[in-house]
Amino acid sequence: MGKAVRIKRVVLLYLVLIVLGIAAGYLLLNGKLGLRCLFRDLTGFKCPGCGNTNGMLALLNGDFLAPVKFNLMFYPEVFTLLYILIYLPYIYITGKNFSKYAAAALVTLAAVFITWGIIRNFINL
Which domain, by its residues, includes 75? Predict the structure, then answer.
């Protein structure tokens, strides 16, 4: 498969994600869509990402401090997601191997987020 085909696939995927994101954002901002945390509904505990939807809504309304009130790890989680959304298509398009340093960083971040998810239930954050 050529590089041009891979680029087209990535662009198409991102266009679909952007359209879905805009639609979800519109529905969330207008109160027509409420997202529930399945993990919290099933276990009664907060997951590492609990509060991120409210944090994103606050961020979209221009409040840059409120997301941290909802979830202390909001910004590290967002930056990790952005890194993944940039790095994975890059290695897919270029055909390069996944860097062992990137893998180690992502595993470390996953461990930090899981640890945060456990700690926040004990200290009630």
Answer: 36-122
